[in-house]
Structure prediction request, 318 residues.
Amino acid sequence: MAGARTRARVVIVMNPRSGGGKAARYGLVQRAEGMGAQVWTTSAEEDAASLARNAVVEGAQVLGVAGGDGTVSAVAAVAADTGRSLVVVPAGTRNHFARDLGLDLRDPGRALDALLDGEPAQVDLGVLGSRVFVNNVSLGVYADALLEPGYREDKPRAFAAVAPDYVKGKQWVEARVDTPWGTVEFPQVVLISNNPYHLATPRWLGRRFSLSTGQLGVIVLKRRAQAPPDLLRHLRGELRQHKRGTGSAGDGAVIWSAPGITLHGEVRHLDAGVDGEAVRLPLPIVCGIRPGALRVLLPKDRPGMPPEHAIAPLRGSP
Prediction:
């Protein structure tokens, strides 16, 4: 497709700092402009959401976003609210949303092929009050690690700094969560995702095979009287024991799907991670979902899609 150009007016909002400068390493500006798109980069003065809104005002017919999941969610919210299609370029560190769309994470520029012959798809968006999330809202040890100075530069050190109090049972989420099996008080971890995660097979653990179920996925790790020696390993073990379906409750974790979830508590605020960004949320925390709210344009070749045999066990699940 070398030399091909899009006919629509496209503005791609690009975060040059995401992924340790991945946009520059993969020449994304040049590749996008070569296809006829405009590239607007974020800065200290202009964030991703304001750039996307300005692009719409100036006549952009398609919005693109190249950056991490926090940048993606900001532009996705504008695209959904203004009826624009979104092209996602995986230029962040983890790229969970792009991964679950099946995009090629090894070569981010391949996502730009969607500008030429993109296949449209409607996907859901999670909502937290007026805020959109494309991946998840997390409370507990991960949210605390996000608040540690230097988290982006040294994530293992940040987790090592906050994990001991959780491991010793001295730290927890100051909230109550109503589940189909009763209320869980002061859990150690709460993870609310835009569509449920696949939990049935270790290889695909944590993937979302669908982003259009119209359901949130909820995982609550209970606070134990005697904390496990390795909290994160304990969480992984609990997840492997549960199959995705109508939901399940065990001694260690409660997992289910729902169109909405609310956390209550006596404290005024809780620290949380929303698509990898640290935020402070007032209680109650109310999460919901907007089914099919976002139209994405996807390249025809998506090597990140799991093989049919991996998703076959999910067919027939509620």
